[in-house]
Every structure is written in C-alpha cells, then in structure tokens.
Write a structure and sequence with these properties.
- The protein is an alpha/beta fold.
- The protein folds into four domains: about 100 residues, GTPase HflX, N-terminal domain (Rossmann fold, 3-Layer(aba) Sandwich); about 60 residues, no CATH class; about 170 residues, Rossmann fold; about 70 residues, Alpha-Beta Plaits (2-Layer Sandwich), CATH 3.30.70.
- Helix content is about 40%, strand content about 20%.
- The strands form three sheets. A seven-stranded mixed β-sheet has the order 6-7-5-8-9-11-10, sandwiched between helices. Strands 2-1-3-4 form a four-stranded parallel β-sheet, sandwiched between helices. The chain has a four-stranded antiparallel β-sheet with strand order 13-14-12-15.
- Helix 1 packs parallel to helix 4 and helix 5 packs antiparallel against helix 6.
- The longest helix has about 35 residues.
- The chain is elongated, with a radius of gyration of 27 Å.
- The protein starts with 8 loop residues before the first strand and ends with a strand.
Amino acid sequence: MIAEHSGERAILVHLDGHALDVREDPYEFQELAVSAGAVIASFVNVSRHQPTARFLIGSGKVDELRQLVLAEQADLVIFNHTLTPSQERNLERALECRVLDRVGLILDIFAQRAQTYEGKLQVELAQLDHLGSRLVGSRSDLSGQLGGIGLRGPGETQLETDRRLLRVRVKQIKNRLAKVRNQRQLARRSRERAEIPGISLVGYTNTGKSTLFNLLTQSEVFAADQLFATLDPTVRRIEVPDLGAATLADTVGFIRHLPHKLVEAFRATLEESASADLLLHVIDAQSPERDEQIKQVHTVLHEIDADDVLMLEVYNKIDLLDNVDPHIQRDADGKPVRVWLSAQREQGIALLQQAIAQLLEDEIYVATVRLTQEHSRLRGKLFDLNAVQHEAHTPEGESVLTLRVTKIELDKLLSREGISADDFFAQYTHR
C-alpha cells in the first residue's frame, strides 16, 4: 500500500500499442499515482504490441527498469495494466522492489479514501479478493510445513493457513455487508413509501459530482480536484422547485476499466443508482476523453442493472469552454436530455432543478381511481404505498381515490396483483 503523502518514489510503466479497447490513458495513470501519494520518479513508455507471459514486458526492458530503479532509488514500480500473480512475483524478483499493477493502485486509493464502516468493509473485501490470487508461492519461506517446538501445526502449511484465514475473513465481511445492505434496503423502502423520488449522481471520477451535490443539498461533502475524492455514498433530502421533496445520492466515481472486483464489492453502494428514479450523469464537458468516459460510465451502469433508469446528462465545467452559456437541450418532444452548467461557478443550477422537476413530474401518476368492493385488496395496497391523497365513497359503495404515485411503483404493484396496466388506466381511472 502507498501511504498518502508518504513521498514514496515510484517508476510508472505504461504499455503503448495495445488495442483501443484495452489501452489505458497515460495521463490518468499519472493522476492515479499522485492521488495515491506517490512521487513520480520516472515515467516509462513501453512500445510493445505482444505482452509476454513472464513479465508482461520484454526481458530487455526489465533489465533497463532494474537499472532505473537503482538510479532513481525507487521504492516501487507501478504498471498501468493488470498483472497476473506470476508476472507480479517475477517482476519483484527481477527488479528487487515492490511492484503494483493498476488494480492494486486503485485499491490503494480506495483504502485511503474510505471513511465509513461500510466503505472500509467494501474496500477490504476487494483487497482480500485481489490478495487471494497472489498467495500462491508469494513467500517461499512459508510454503514448508510448520514444525519444531511450539510451532507444530495441525498438518497445514503456512500457505494453507493463510488461505483458510483469508476465507474466514472474507466470509465475515460478506456477512457484515449483507446486514448493511438490508439496512440500506429498509431505508430505501421507507423513502419509497413516503413517495419521495430518488435521484442519484453518477459519472466518471473527478467530473465535479461532489461540488454539484454540495450546491443542490447545501451540505459540505468533501470535494477536491483529484481522482476518487468521494468514495463513501452520501444521501441527502432536497427540495426541488415545483416538485417537492426528493433524495439525492452522491456515489463513487467510475473509471476506465473499473476492476470487476470493485464493482462487485461496491454493489450494495451502487444499488442506490440502480434503484433511483432519475440518474444525473455528470460529465466533464471540457475533457478530451469525454466520449470515452461516457462510454465507461454506461458500461458500469449496465453491470449494476441501472442502464434502464431514466437519465439526465449534466455537462459540467462549461466555464472552461469558450462561448458556452448554461442551457437545457431537449428532444423532439421537449423533454430535457442534457443540461450545460458550471458547478464551480454556480451557473445553471436553476436550469438543472427545472429539468429535474419536469422529468420527475412526467414520471409521477396523478389521477382519480374508482374501485369496487371486489378491488379492496388493491385499495389496501395503494394505501400501503402512501399513494392515496384523498378517499371518498359513492352511494353504490365504490371507493374514489385520488392518487399521486410514481409510475414505476404503480407498475410494480399492478404487476404483482396480476392487473394489466392498460386495463387499469382505461377502466378505473378518471383524470
């Protein structure tokens, strides 16, 4: 692990010539290293199209790196790519210093940023998963049988003991995270019963999500110009003009080729996005990598089953662009699809609130429903959802309910009750 602001001298190794779908960004790599607290002693760009099985890079380049490590008195070498456990071990032996790959680097940053109990558990789970594949042969002195006075074991090698203890710890963390997930689901159900729409900020790391979150919620979540400044999820209640109360969640930023083990570890947190009524996809409008970053965000949203959630794109940092004023872009039906603003300059926030209100209002079903006594079960379920604003009765004993409920929740209820949404809207409702 790299201690933040530790001043550890690092040599960064970037492989060029990879296929576009696996190539990493060298500038982002340097930002990651600095965010982890490393001092960049040297940046090595390796032009190689065919990675080797033993070192990832060629043996000649390994020799050059060894000399560079000595000359720069480097503490570690960081690769901007994923290394196999054997490649990592081979490189450490050859370079005689610590070696870290891209996944390990991101895990280290996450470990430094995690503040909440849940965040720390999620990071530790991802770290243990990463470590588990690297126990094999990682320490040759531990591969022998424990023996000697006071050292005799139950027949396990130290390596087997390490593995067993790791499995026990992983199980403990998963059990604790399951409890946290249940608590989060209960809180989410409580908000849903109160008919409070849920909004979630998503986007590439360092696009300004936390700055925007602070503006909309009038709170002080940590925001800084660095990768993964926000790791722990935060949910606040906000008031949206012309709409009313809503909840806004600030989530961990995504990144190119986000390690799958991190997506899995943070699934409970990312479910805030999957269960939201509206996603605000915050985009760095001035980034030269903007299109690629948008693509990466959509990839992660697909992994957490959130790609069907209603989305509004928020193009942030327009103060860094020429001749671009805050404005709303709409589709052919007049529906907001994109808002251009500057969170840093507090420009365009009212336009964003206007767009949010319009989109969520379109997703809320307001109508008067007339139900007979045979629909008493459905009536009870509507009350359970807190969807009933007012109830009256006809001389025939029918219930006349004034409803205000999100279309998503109403569709779910009708599906559970085996009622066709088309039939319900056509036969029972009177706007």
